[in-house]
Specification:
699 residues; mainly beta; 49% strand; rod-shaped
Length: 699
């Protein structure tokens, strides 16, 4: 079959009837007959903006063979492939009314557009239309729609169709009373091109004419450093409704009423003309997302008061919105319900935008000179600088020998923590029972809590402190020679620095042998009371002694003895007895009877007296009690200082040296005192025995 024949057969009736075809047919092999081709029409572009335009057209007729159709647009009327964009409309279905918006066009540029349809092998195009995008820099907006208007509010919506310059920085609705000059802008949050903008204006006067118009500001950059341009939509005039609902105000929220998970709100109902002052219900509505919360759509807090009437005076109420999270943004406004001629009305106050407080982390700092130590304790003083009495649930001290960044949880596991319950923002605690001369990491901490949210703050982890070592007292000996008496000395000690131990005993040690006497090698010792004064008695006369003070100390179970104040002294001789000249009462060949007088000295007691002799061996040594002696005890019954004793068992005809002596007892010590002057005597000879004289001629 000749395909071109069908084409001509399809065209001839149309040409004969005087019709002009609005479709342009591009032919290729296996084309469909023309009487089966669809009809494509394009309309003039509408709403050509700076970077967008709305293309419209229609497709009708035979469309069963069509696989795809839509619009093509290009900056060239020849529609080259590298400058042509295609928008498929096949999903919309063939219809007499098709339209689509193209975006991201170049400002002040001429564009050509047409419709297309294809069977997959055959392409059909409509006639070509053209348009030029605008060069406007101000934003362009759709017509503004009045959503609702009440006694003291009006709600509008519109769309920003083109932001104009590069960045949209603000948009909203501005308004004024009809008889006023200046418009008051009410902006919306985070405006973007193509977004449906909804603005509610409150605090309007009832029964009053107002002018409203949408506006938008744009700039070449977000900071508007190159200036901004403001565009306006069409101004409309609306009248607010007559006041029949309640007049309610949302109180300004004080910073102190905003908590971490709650906020305290106040509202005041000024009047309710339409219900003769009677209020059915009041409270607050709030939302986390809706900037204009309503009674029926969002959360609410209902005031439980009944019998409210504001005929004579306003009614103020309050309520807490709870269950919020920290740093949560919410919208809140007061509401009041009343009934006007059988119709329930709900009036709202101004929306208050509130962000709940954030639970702060406690800031804890060690005070100046805030750490002091002993050998077994560390005292810590710190301050919570951002003190919040409502949030504080715990504070205290934690410590570790090894872990500088110790956490409270770790410390509680290790039981190295101490909770402090007094002092408001102050943290003062003494850690006891620590090891001597040991390094510890110390941290003060505080815990804030709100609901299930908890924050813990610490002081720096670098606070490393060492307990004191075993510090012994420093002791001195303040004794001198002037304090020496016969057989005794008064010793005086002084503690010049007490150290950090507990003194359990103090005293003195004395020795005539060791120059550094101790409690292990002393000859004499004496404990002392806190005055650190003691008298050592029973010392030997005429003897050099060495003395030291000592202190016994104890700290954390450890015991030490320290010595100090070394000194030496010399003991005086005692007052010795004096002797008179000896009187030889009788001398025989084997004995001698001697009489002597002794006067006691001031010191001690004479307990014995006698004479001692030794044979003259030409060494002229003085006799002692270790030689031949005769002695008598001196008791209380003894009278007089004169004594007469006989030395027996002597050898005849021998020269002897003799001297008197006494034994003086001082304390427990006994001292032998000699006259230190010797005399000589000779026992009688026995004739014939002691020489060559015959016995009969001996005396």
């Amino acid at each position: 079959m000749n395909i071109k024949k069908y084409i001509m057969q399809g065209l001839l009736p149309l040409l004969a009837a005087g019709f002009i075809c609005t479709s342009v047919i591009s032919c290729s092999e296996e084309e469909v007959p023309n009487n089966m081709a669809p009809t494509l029409n394009v309309s003039a572009v509408s709403n050509a903006l700076r970077t967008s335009a709305i293309l419209s057209g229609s497709i009708s007729g035979q469309t069963s063979q069509i696989k795809d159709f839509g619009f093509e647009y290009s900056t060239s009327q020849d529609f080259p492939s590298d400058k042509t964009s295609k928008i498929s409309m096949s999903e919309e279905g063939a219809t007499s009314s098709l339209s689509t918006q193209v975006k991201n066009l170049t400002p002040n540029e001429r564009y050509y557009y047409r419709m297309y349809a294809t069977t997959g092998v055959t392409n059909i195009y409509s006639a070509v239309q053209d348009f030029r995008t605008t060069n406007m820099s101000a934003a362009q907006m759709s017509a503004m729609t009045v959503d609702s208007i009440g006694e003291n509010y009006a709600r509008f919506s519109f769309t920003i169709e083109d932001i104009g310059n590069e960045v949209l920085i603000e948009c909203g609705v501005s308004y004024k009373k009809s008889d006023s000059k200046a418009f008051i802008p009410v902006a919306i949050d985070n405006p973007t091109s193509g977004t449906q903008c909804v603005v509610e204006i409150t605090d309007l006067d009832p029964d009053t004419d107002y002018n409203f118009r949408p506006y938008a500001k744009n700039a070449a950059d977000r900071e508007a450093t190159t200036g901004s341009i403001e565009g306006f939509g069409t101004t409309i005039t609306q009248k607010t409704a007559a006041l029949l609902s309640a007049s309610v105000e949302t109180g300004v929220v004080d910073e102190g009423d905003i908590k971490i998970t709650s906020v305290r709100m106040t509202g005041t109902i000024q009047s309710a003309v339409g219900s003769n002052g009677v209020i059915n219900e009041c409270g607050f509505v709030y939302s986390l997302t809706n900037s204009l919360p309503t009674y029926n759509s969002d959360s609410k807090i209902i005031n439980d008061a009944t019998g409210i009437n504001v005929t004579t005076k306003p009614y103020t109420y309050s309520g807490d919105i709870t269950g919020l999270s920290q740093s949560t943004h919410c919208y809140v406004r007061a509401y009041a319900r009343n009934t006007v001629t059988g119709e329930e009305r709900i009036a709202y106050g101004t929306v208050r935008e509130i962000t709940t407080a954030q639970l702060k982390k406690p800031v804890v700092e060690i005070n100046s000179e805030g750490i002091t130590t002993t050998a077994t304790t560390i005292k810590v003083s710190a301050t919570i600088t951002n003190y919040d009495a409502n949030a504080l649930v715990e504070k205290g001290i934690i410590w570790s020998k090894t872990q500088g960044d110790l956490s409270l949880a770790d410390a509680k596991t290790a039981k190295t923590y101490q909770v402090v319950t007094t002092g408001e923002n102050q943290i003062v605690a003494t850690i006891e029972g620590l090891d001597i001369n040991t390094s510890y990491f110390i941290r003060a901490y505080a815990v804030y809590k709100s609901g299930e949210i908890m924050e813990t703050g610490y002081t720096s982890s670098s606070n490393q402190t060492r307990t004191d070592g075993f510090i012994l007292p420093n002791i001195d000996l303040e004794t001198n020679q002037d304090q020496v008496e016969f057989g005794s000395i008064e010793l005086v000690g002084k503690i010049s620095s007490s150290g950090n131990t507990t003194i359990t005993e103090r005293g003195f040690v004395v020795s005539s042998i060791s120059s550094e006497p101790t409690l292990e090698n002393y000859e004499k010792t004496a404990k002392s009371n806190e005055s650190f004064t003691s008298t050592i008695t029973g010392l030997k006369p005429q003897t050099w002694y060495y003395a030291r003070a000592y202190v016994k100390c104890e700290l954390a179970g450890r015991k030490e003895t320290t010595y100090g104040g070394w000194g030496s002294f010399y003991t005086y001789d005692f007052d010795r007895p004096s002797f008179s000249s000896m009187e030889y009462v009788e001398t025989t060949a084997s004995s001698v009877t001697i009489k002597n007088n002794v006067t006691p000295g001031k010191d001690g007691t004479i307990v014995a007296r006698g004479f001692c002799v030794r044979v003259d061996d030409e060494k002229h040594l003085a006799p002692t009690v270790d030689d031949i002696k005769v002695e008598e005890a001196v008791t209380d019954a003894t009278t007089g200082n004169t004594y007469t004793l006989t030395l027996s068992n002597l050898v005849s005809g021998i020269t002897y040296y003799v001297q008197p002596y006494v034994i003086v007892q001082i304390g427990s010590e006994k001292h032998v005192c000699y006259r230190h002057s010797i005399e000589a005597f000779v026992t009688k000879r026995i004739p014939g025995q002691d020489d060559n004289v015959s016995p009969d001629k001996k005396d």
